[in-house]
């Protein structure tokens, strides 16, 4: 199985590489443009994929991927399933702070709440952060891009005294034991 | 030692409050105890309250409190009803065909079936009395007439006369905690009708609660009546007027209730499961796929095939009475994979919009039609659960 390995290649100088994995291939393009636009100090390379495993042909030319982001649209069940199957092709070393989940349409009333619950459970079991993003407005895309850049810079080792694992202990998704119950406050 | 006494006091009082029995008429010492030590509580609860106590409470079925919100809630704990939680159900009992005409008057049943209703959720009604239906009818008709006549300088007389009928549909409530269903009809003379023509029903609606979550209903203060599901049929202007009258009179809130794809899948499976008893004639599912332009897929399944698929999914526990969400998901996945094999279109990429069988149909936007009176309680129970879950508190 062709696992994507986090440390098998040398890092570039002042460079960070992020991989956006999304089954629908809509949000990743906007996000990629915004991410590259907003980062001035670091060379950010954004790679887009529909699912893992990545094609073998690019294996040599592909740089070291610092952060893998799975974009899940809660409006379709297929999005979640495709992200789940892609997880198998990641080396376990990635789950120490180099994987992030990004969901869209979390506030949508027509989305069954069980889907967000299962994404949360998945993210919590893998100790990864879960971000919610709004993909229809430019502010939403910009906010998501800023958050991803913050995590990316830590995962690429560009922030002194902080590593991906250290950050992930704060940002990782947690699930209260009674998550199956509706919140009444 | 004083500290220990205080701690025990506080843990005791927290137990009381959590069980939703807090009343302002508590004996004074407990009252003082709770108010006097809120700040101390914060520190104490994290250090000294035994961990297993709190955890035991969290595992109890109805109440959810994380440690932090435990503390915040005790300040506000005097209105019970805030401390209850509802579960998204993972299994349901299989629907049994019941001749509901034994419990409910057949004429009233005829009013409910074979019509398409638009659903909304309602928050609990304050001081709604089932005995006061006649005054309510008069007030509502006066309200509608006055709203309709706003802006008209001249008294228009009979043409705009609205007559409202409130009635109770006895027998739909399943448990003794459910409030009885209230049926509302608005009759009016058609414009330009002859003098002797009878008034026709222009709008009808009903408020119901069937098998609502018992813990939630028990935790409501006694002045509140919970009828969380509102089904309406008729012109939107009248619906808005009725809702605003209810909001003014009973201090409640209305909101649209959609039926999300999980619940549509439940309905599809429950109806398919009824096939041996009553022929469903077809199982039709409508999906919307997010292509450009959006594509609608109508997938009609022969009832016998649907039944065989459902039966094979239920192979493991056909003796048990309950259906779990996994069986429903497998059933729908089976249908989707069959479609994929033939058309190479994966329906799970889209969203389920509508399902219909001969027993009824249901749309994602909150429309439901029940064609057969035999399975009314099951459908209403599912819809009541949806309404209770959707309700903001």
From TrEMBL, chain A:
What keywords tag this UniProt record? Answer: Centromere, Chromosome, Nucleus
A single Gene Ontology CC annotation of this entry is: chromosome, centromeric region
Q: Is Repeat given among the entry's keywords? A: no
The record's InterPro entries line, in alphabetical order, gives: Centromere_Cenp-M, P-loop_NTPase
| Compartment annotation | Chromosome, Centromere; Nucleus
The molecule here is called Centromere protein M
Can you name the source organism?
A: Coregonus suidteri
Automatic annotation (TrEMBL), chain B:
Listed under GO cellular component are: chromosome, centromeric region; nucleus
Indicate where this protein resides in the cell.
Chromosome, Centromere; Nucleus
Where this protein primarily resides, as one coarse class? nucleus
InterPro entries reported for this sequence: CENP-L (IPR025204)
**Keywords noted in UniProt:** Centromere, Chromosome, Nucleus
Q: Which family does it belong to?
A: Belongs to the CENP-L/IML3 family.
Q: What is this protein called?
A: Centromere protein L
């Amino acid at each position: 199985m062709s696992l994507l390995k986090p440390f098998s290649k040398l890092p570039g100088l002042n460079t960070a590489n992020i991989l956006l994995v999304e089954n629908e291939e809509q949000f990743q393009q906007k996000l990629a443009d915004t991410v590259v636009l907003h980062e001035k100090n670091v060379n950010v390379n954004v790679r887009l994929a529909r699912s893992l495993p990545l094609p073998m042909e690019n294996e040599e030319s592909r740089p070291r991927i610092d952060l893998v982001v799975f974009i899940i649209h809660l409006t379709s069940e297929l999005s979640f399933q495709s992200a789940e199957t892609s997880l198998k092709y990641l080396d376990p070393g990635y789950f120490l702070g180099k994987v992030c989940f990004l969901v869209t349409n979390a506030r949508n009333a027509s989305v069954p709440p069980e889907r967000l619950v299962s994404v949360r459970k998945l993210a919590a079991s893998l100790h990864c952060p879960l971000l919610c993003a709004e993909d229809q407005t430019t502010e939403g895309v910009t906010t998501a891009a800023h958050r991803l850049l913050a995590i990316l810079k830590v995962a690429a080792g560009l922030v002194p005294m902080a590593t991906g694992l250290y950050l992930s202990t704060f940002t990782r998704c947690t699930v209260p034991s009674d998550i199956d119950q509706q919140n009444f406050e | 030692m004083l500290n220990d006494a205080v701690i025990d006091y506080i843990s005791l009082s927290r137990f009381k409050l959590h069980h939703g029995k807090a009343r302002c008429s508590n004996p004074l010492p407990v009252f003082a105890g709770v108010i006097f030590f809120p700040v101390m509580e914060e520190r104490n609860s994290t250090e000294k309250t035994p961990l297993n106590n709190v955890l035991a409470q969290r595992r109890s079925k109805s109440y959810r409190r994380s440690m932090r919100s435990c503390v915040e809630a005790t300040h506000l704990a005097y209105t019970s009803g805030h401390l209850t939680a509802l579960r998204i159900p993972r299994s349901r009992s299989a629907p049994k065909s019941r001749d509901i005409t034994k419990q409910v008057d057949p004429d009233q049943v005829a009013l409910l079936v074979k019509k398409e209703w638009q659903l909304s959720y309602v928050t609990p009604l304050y001081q709604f009395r089932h005995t006061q239906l006649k005054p309510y009818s008069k007030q509502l008709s006066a309200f509608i007439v006055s709203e309709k006549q706003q802006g008209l300088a001249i008294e228009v007389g009979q043409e705009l006369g609205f007559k409202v009928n409130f009635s109770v549909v006895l027998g739909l409530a399943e448990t003794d905690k459910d409030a009885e269903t209230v049926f509302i009809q608005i009759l009016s003379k058609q414009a330009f009708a002859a003098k002797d023509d009878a008034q026709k029903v222009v709008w009808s609606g009903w408020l119901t609660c069937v098998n609502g979550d018992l813990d939630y209903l028990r935790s409501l203060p006694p002045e509140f009546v919970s009828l969380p599901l509102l089904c309406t049929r008729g012109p939107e202007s009248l619906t808005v007027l009725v809702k605003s009258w209810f909001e003014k009179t009973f201090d409640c809130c209305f909101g649209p209730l959609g039926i999300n794809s999980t619940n549509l899948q439940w309905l599809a499976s429950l109806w398919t499961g009824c096939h041996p008893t009553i022929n469903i004639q077809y199982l039709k599912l409508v999906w919307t796929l997010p292509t450009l332009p959006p594509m609608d897929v109508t997938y009609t399944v022969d009832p016998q095939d649907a039944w065989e698929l459902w039966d094979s999914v239920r192979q493991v526990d056909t003796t048990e009475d309950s259906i779990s969400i996994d069986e429903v998901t497998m059933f729908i996945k089976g249908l989707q994979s069959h479609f994929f094999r033939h058309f190479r279109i994966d329906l799970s990429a889209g969203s389920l919009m509508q399902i219909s069988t001969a027993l009824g149909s249901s749309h994602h936007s909150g429309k439901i039609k029940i064609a057969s009176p035999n399975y009314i309680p099951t459908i209403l129970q599912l819809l009541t659960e949806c309404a209770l879950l959707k309700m903001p508190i």
